[in-house]
Amino acid sequence: MPSDEFVESNPLLDDPPALRSRMRDEGYLFFRGIGPKEKLLAARRDVIALCREARWCDGDGRWTGVGPFTEGDREYMAVYQKVIKLPSFLAVPEDRVFMKLIGNIIGGEAMLHRLRIGRITFPNNVQQTTAAHQDHWYIRGAPDTYTIWQPLGECPRELGGLALLPRSQKNGFIEHRFQAEKKYAGHGLQDDQIPAASQDQWLTADFGVGDFLVFHSFTIHKALPNLTRDRLRISTDNRYQRAGDAIAEISTKSHYNL
Ligand SMILES: O=C(O)CCC(=O)C(=O)O
Question: CATH number of the domain that 221 lies in?
């Protein structure tokens, strides 16, 4: 039976041509444990403090039953605008490990977008799980733009990590459809738009602290639902490209311009 686990790219870390080649072939790279753990946990602590202040969770990130709220909801945005200004949250994607890695993937000077996204995903809210999409729909600019997705804290599958379709970037960009039921990220790809041969090839992982996923802006990916009873899924996704390449205005501003 084929594995539904990402292939780890840690052994390629110091081999830029091999990193580039795997990214070109597979559309993603997955690394275990090399993210800046202290920074990730500091950001997690600060995000949880804000969620706790809003009475969404206890000090351990355990949901109180308030909500569920989603990006776009007034209650969510009131907390979110504080999250994306936290110095600890902003510091994560700037870490040298990411800048160097992306520099090696693009073979040049990496630039981190000002747009930095945080996600707080409540339990009992499956309908609002991020649908399958390609980031190029939202980010535009240079196709050779790369997303790094990582949880702040551990993210076992039932908490809803990220899944993607390997090699899906090779089919190029696909027009997205409006999905009226979504409160945010309202455009996505439906099953009939995804090549039939790859429908059963979704890959994912149980993410530990410091594990992260890098993928191309044409790679099809989606969130997995948070199926836990009482845990908030806290994550961040950030985008990088070659300095000097085309960039759309949205990527030069903070999320929602908050
Ligand atoms: O974390 C999520 O729910 C969605 C993340 C995502 O789609 C992305 O990083 O592009």
Answer: 2.60.120.620
- Residue ranges making up the domain that contains 95: 10-248
Question: Is this model's pTM higher than 0.85 or not?
Answer: yes
* CB 149 less than 6 A from any atom of ligand 1: yes
Give the DSSP letter of residue 204.
B
Residues 228, 193 contacting (CB under 8 angstroms)? no
Distance CA 74, CA 249 (A): 25
Ligand 1 contact via 147 beta carbon (within 6 Å): yes
Residue 253 lies in a domain: no
Give the residue, out of 147, 152, 215, with the most ligand 1 atoms within 8 A of its beta carbon, to mutate for a pocket test: 147
Is 85 inside a domain boundary?
yes
Which of 237, 240, 250, 251 maximizes ligand 1 atoms within 8 Å of its Cβ, making it the mutation to test the pocket? 237
Taking the CA of residue 130 as reference, the ligand 1 atom at the shortest distance is 3
| Contact indicator for 80, 120 with CB cutoff of 8 Å | yes
Dump pLDDT digits (tens) for 29-54.
999 999 999 999 999 999 999 999 99
Distant-in-sequence, close-in-space partners of 140: CB < 8 Å, separation ≥ 6: 248, 250, 251
Is 242 contained in some domain? yes
The dihedral sign for the CA sequence 210, 257, 163, 27: negative
State the total domains in the chain.
1
pLDDT of 1 higher than 80: no
User: Is 174 among the domain residues?
Assistant: yes
Average pLDDT of 133-145?
Answer: 96
For residue 119, give the ligand 1 atom closest to its CA.
1
